[in-house]
Amino acid sequence: MISLESAQNDSFVLLQLAEQRFALPAGLVAELAPPVRLHSFPHTSPHISGVIVRRGRILPVYDAARALSGKSSFAHRFYLVARRQFGETSEMTAIPVDGECELVTSDFRAPANDAASYISGEITAAGESIGILDIESLIQSHSQPTGPTEARQ
Amino acid sequence: MKIAAQDAQRPRHLRAAETAILFTVSRQLFAIAADTVQEIRSTDSIAGSASEFACPEVPKVSHTFERARRQYYVVSGCAHFGLRVSRPTLVLILRQLRVAVLVDRIDRMTELHGIFDLPLAFGGNERRWYRGLTYLDDHVIPVVNPRGFLTAEEFHRIEGVPQAAEVTHQVEGAASQ
Fold it and tell me: Is A45 close to B141, i.e. CB distance below 8 A?
């Protein structure tokens, strides 16, 4: 688990989703949690795979890899716990990530013209250009309600 | 920065422990407040008094039965929650609602001390289906909202459907003219 207590405004967490690297502003990230048990129950919200219990709270699990690639990653090793905003209320959401996450400091750049709608900017880390993931845009672009999701235990 | 501490998602502690019935539908565990259930009957025991019912707009209602001069609508728990079809053996007859729910079995009765609000990330029909979530014996269990089984709109639709007996009567009446 990484602690982000000292993260600065130009700090980003690099994560691996659907075989792509993305960056998230460190200010949105609370922690990297171990792969605890996923609890599922029937619902109709797209790309929500269930909930986890973390520090006495129930956190929804948003399957960002599935939203990006159409398939879930069953090899995820951690949950990245990040803040989502619902009007004036914020809520923590757990995002399954495939590999190690890394805290980096980098300058923000505007996104390329042909960047996907859910990329809000770019940073450079180890010589690589990495898109900054806008979770809200990603969710909105995949927000069509689905049929009931059968519970998985 | 301690983001987790700012998160308001905490369980609502109930003023008094709430007795709940844990039941399963298609192997999924649910909880319902015991005081919202009037009676639990076997499906066999109501089979004789139940009539088949068909409303294409509300296919989860398959039967009706009359009880104390009130017509009850039987909702399939599997169809309601979109679960794989199973073989229900019990009917939960709800209190103050003319709704009975087909379930597979009763797991047990227990006491709930707190209910978590459903996370805001859940934005679909589940906001109507559930009062919230509870955490019991290392399981997260949805606490169903009894009024979610049939909405006012669904009631309006099914109340407009003639009963099988009425249809038969109308057909017979038409034939005799």
Answer: no
| B125-155 pLDDT tens trace | 999 999 999 999 999 999 999 999 999 999 8
**pTM score:** 0.84
Nearest chain A residue to B8, by CA? A91
Q: Which structural domains are found in chain A, ordered by start? A: 11-143 (2.40.50.180)
The answer to whether residue A5 neighbours chain B at the CB level (below 8 Å) is yes
pLDDT for A19: 83
pLDDT, tens digit, 9 for 90 and up, residues B28-42: 999 999 999 999 999
Helix spans in chain B (H): 3-6, 43-47, 77-81, 126-129, 152-159, 164-176
Does residue A70 belong to the interface with chain B, where contact is any CB pair within 8 Å? no
Task: Find, among A108, A109, A129, A132, the residue nearest to A120 by Cα.
Answer: A132
Nearest by CB to A145, from B27, B119, B124: name it.
Answer: B124
